[in-house]
Amino acid sequence: MSTDSLPQTPSATTTPLHLPSDQDASGRTFGWQELAFLRQVLDSGVLTSTKGQFVKQLESSFASMIGAKHVIACSSGTAAVHAAVAAIDPEPGDEIITTSITDMGALTPILYQGAIPVFADVDPHTYNVTAESIRAVISDRTRAIIVTHLFGNPCEMEPITQLAKSRGIPIIEDCAQAFLSSHQDQYVGTLGSIGCFSLQQGKHITTGEGGLVVTNDDDIARRLFLFINKAWGYGDEQPDHYFLALNYRMSELQGAVAAAQLGRLQSVVGSRIRSAIELSNKLDGIRGLATPFVSERIVHTYWKYCLNVDERVIRGGAPALGQLLKDRGIACAPRYIQKPAFECEIFRDQRTFGNSRFPFNLARPAAVDYSPEKFSGTYTALSHVLVLPWNERFEDRHVDFIADAIIDSVAELTK
């Protein structure tokens, strides 16, 4: 294939540029405010959020930022999803629709609450579930729908919301990768019944581990708060442990760091968007390579930056391009996850509680049918995607270096 149409740039085979990483300080934004807040916590000696101030401050500030009535902090993104599922309170054997491309932390809470994860296929261009893929697996036993705004790119929520409302089914939004992403000028997390956020090491802002659960429903908020606090009715006239629940509280130390981080969230997101758009502009028009699809109705906040690689044009596809980028010092992940979630042993072999197979032993056969032909979008998406790490510390020189490396590598693979 001719490479005449490729932009002419300097070779990327020169000395690699060290890229900031969200796995250490080079790609994270920490400062004096975190230290000052931590000092206040330690000086007070109050490290539990039941008596401290910083977790409450975090909850109030985040609620104001995204326009939510209630925010409850917890110990991780997984805890946030678990609290959300528990708030829906499924009966054993009820079904919760979710995505085939997600982290296990968003799936195991469904099983722990005795429900059956039912996997919907994804759009191979956005990697997100759609109203059509959800409709294909919905049933009379569907208790909730979990939509995951993967990589910071929101799902097309309007048709999904219409479908859910027509069936009386609540929506849980997994926003772990999507701080300040929006759909039609409304922040994700406030589009469904419950929103779940993660403060894990690599997220837009971080406390190492941590989570936030969001809702505008007073009754759901009460249930979320109780589940995160061992179902103990703090503040009630005659408190008790009302139902089966865990201790998923966030500590004041985490809350102090998160409160400081939250003050930087707008600038962090803005930086990610600017640098991602810059890279997309530099790669525009390269045959066989598609930059992230961004609908005009949404704001993508780029937890990661994803390329769609056409192996019919670029020899060896995403794995070959990824290897050349790694050789040039650019970390990347072909496929994102090596296989769809339902191919993991926990689902394939139904390994849960002892030998009981619970709750799979309550499932309809169709709910646990993972036939490949049902997931054509999933397999296409995973085979074509190349995921680049992204963070707010990327400067123009980093974007230029990445763009040059991609352009040179594509040229090498299309000779």
Description:
The protein is an alpha/beta fold. It has two domains: 32-264, 3-Layer(aba) Sandwich (Aspartate Aminotransferase, domain 2); 265-337 and 379-413, Aspartate Aminotransferase, domain 1 (Alpha-Beta Complex). Helices cover 34% and strands 14% of the residues. It has helices at 32-44, 54-66, 77-88, 108-112, 131-135, 157-167, 218-228, 252-262, 265-283, 317-327, 345-348, 376-384, 396-413, and strands spanning 70-74, 95-99, 116-120, 142-148, 171-174, 182-183, 186-187, 194-198, 211-215, 289-290, 298-299, 304-309, 333-334, 385-389. The strands form three sheets. It has a seven-stranded mixed sheet, with helices on both faces. Strand 4, helix 6 and strand 5 (171-174) form a beta-alpha-beta unit. Helix 3 (77-88) crosses helix 7 (218-228). It is globular, with a radius of gyration of 22 Å.
Overview features:
2 domains, 4-stranded antiparallel beta sheet, alpha/beta, disordered N terminus, Aspartate Aminotransferase, domain 2, 13 helices
- CATH-derived architecture of the largest domain: 3-Layer(aba) Sandwich
Instruction: Return the CATH topology of the largest domain.
Output: Aspartate Aminotransferase, domain 2
Choose one word for the global shape.
globular
The overall average pLDDT, rounded, is 95
> How many separate domains make up the residues?
2
Distance between the termini: 6 Å
Low-confidence stretches: 1-13
Helix content, binned percent: 25-40%
Strand order of the largest sheet: 1-9-8-5-4-2-3
